[in-house]
Design brief:
By secondary structure, the chain is α/β, with parallel strands linked by helices. The protein contains 8 helices and 12 strands. A 5-stranded mixed β-barrel has the order 6-11-10-7-12, surrounded by 4 helices. α5 crosses α8. The two termini are about 20 Å apart. It binds 1,4-anhydro-D-erythro-pent-1-enitol and uracil. 1,4-anhydro-D-erythro-pent-1-enitol binds next to β6.
């Protein structure tokens, strides 16, 4: 892990965004972590924690309630064996804040070899809804292959490739009889769900017509871009700077070439969400020694 050297001489006592005191007792809860699995919502992070308790520790999920290790209502953090299941909220801005704090926490707790995986949902481009995409490269909405951010007035462009050996290990960990399609591709991280992804059903009107959008979507195939979501570019940019292997496992909820609205039933959506979690669990199980 590559961490800000400033932290070595200025140790902190409190992580403001996680609302966590950095006491010896609290830090002890975060030693020996191998993977951090990040999902948008805190309830999905809790669901994954329950599944991991069953898969890794053989605990009957019926009798297990995961304990949230932080007190903030913005994020949740659960530990199961050597895995953290955390929530990151929605969008590059919130995941970036989480990444800073969770990385500092894990560094202070003595973890140097970590992997970060975002497990989520996305809007597919030309793929059957329910397909799981493992991201190789994250793109900006203007198809730039880097993440543009700002340090006050300075524009910074950061590389957004994911860790290819982590991607390969995740694919290799999947059983041959997986009951849904899974593929490696690239992703666009948009700044919002509506206009940022050129949806026509937002509260405000897009500036682009359907003809223009169809032409734009057609270009995506050439770049092997398979889905839209809202966090992959800052995840990749952060992890490239920090030298933490990272990728994203995201199920597609709809095919954006066929529409804008997510129309699947609640049961179908829950089943889709289970798919990306199952891919992550298969990988985590393959890494237990
Ligand atoms: C995918 O789904 C969320 C929006 O519904 C967002 O966090 C994302 O990246
Ligand atoms: N998440 C997104 O960001 N876009 C979609 O279309 C679906 C989920």
């Amino acid at each position: 892990m590559n961490i800000n050297p400033w932290l070595k001489n200025n140790p902190e006592q409190y992580l403001y965004l996680l609302q966590l005191e950095l006491t010896t007792q609290n830090l002890a809860m975060f030693t020996n972590i191998k993977q951090v699995i990040m999902q948008g919502s805190s309830s999905r992070a809790a669901t994954l924690a329950r599944k991991l308790a069953g898969a890794l520790l053989n605990i009957d999920q019926q009798f297990f309630e995961p304990v949230n290790l932080v007190t903030t209502s913005n994020f949740a953090v659960y530990r199961i064996g050597n895995v953290l299941s955390v929530s990151h909220g929605m969008g590059n801005v919130t995941i970036d804040a989480l990444l800073h704090e969770i990385t500092k926490l894990l560094y202070y707790a003595g973890n140097l070899n970590l992997e970060y995986i975002r497990v989520g949902t996305s809007g597919g481009i030309g793929v059957e809804p329910g397909t799981v995409i493992i991201t190789q490269n994250a793109f900006m909405p203007n198809l730039a292959p880097y993440y543009t951010t700002y340090e006050l007035d300075q524009q910074i462009d950061l590389p957004t490739h994911m860790d290819s050996s982590l991607v390969n290990r995740i694919i290799a960990a999947q059983p041959a009889e997986l009951e849904f399609p899974i593929l490696v591709g690239n992703s666009i991280a948009a700044d919002d769900f509506y206009l940022g992804q050129c949806r026509y059903d937002g509260a405000m009107t897009t500036r682009k017509d359907e003809k223009w959008r169809t032409k734009f979507f057609a270009q995506l195939d050439k770049l092997n871009i398979k889905n839209f979501e809202m966090e992959s570019s800052s995840l990749a940019a952060f992890c490239n700077q920090a030298s933490i292997p990272a990728t994203m496992i995201a199920v597609t909820l709809l095919n954006r070439l066929k529409g804008d609205q997510v129309v699947s039933s609640a049961t179908q959506l829950a089943e889709f969400s289970d798919r990306s979690q199952q891919v992550a669990i298969n990988y985590i199980l393959s890494q237990q020694s």
